[in-house]
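Protein Record: Sequence and Backbone Structure Tokens
======================================================
Tokens: labelled as protein backbone structure tokens, with as many entries as the chain has residues.
Question of interest: how does this chain fold, as expressed in backbone structure tokens?

___
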Amino acid sequence: MKPKNCAKSMSLLVFAALCLTASTSWARPPRAQELCGELQVVNRQAQLLTLLPAGNELPLRLAWKPDTSLVRNGLFDTTEALKAGARACVYYRTPFFGKPFVTKVVWHENPASLQH
């Protein structure tokens, strides 16, 4: 066998081995980030809320979508129940392009019962 044919056969064999042993990968979005604080502004028309985090952080302006979960006192609720001044924990995602958006808002009528 000539060296040229041997190199060609060997590269074909390596390529076939790589194709047969390729592993599958699972693409999953990153987990949502959690932030607790006081709701400063709730704009239902623009579907935006502003959260003032506990501590010395700047307010965070977030959009919500129709599939955003709203949980008040452990039960699902509607956007009409969101009120400025409520202490809440929001779970949000920050996409590469676009505004940060809320995936879930959790709040209690009694702020002392909020775990965070």
Notes: The chain has a mean pLDDT of 83. Helices lie at 3-20. The domain at 33-113 is CATH 2.40.50.320 (OB fold (Dihydrolipoamide Acetyltransferase, E2P)).
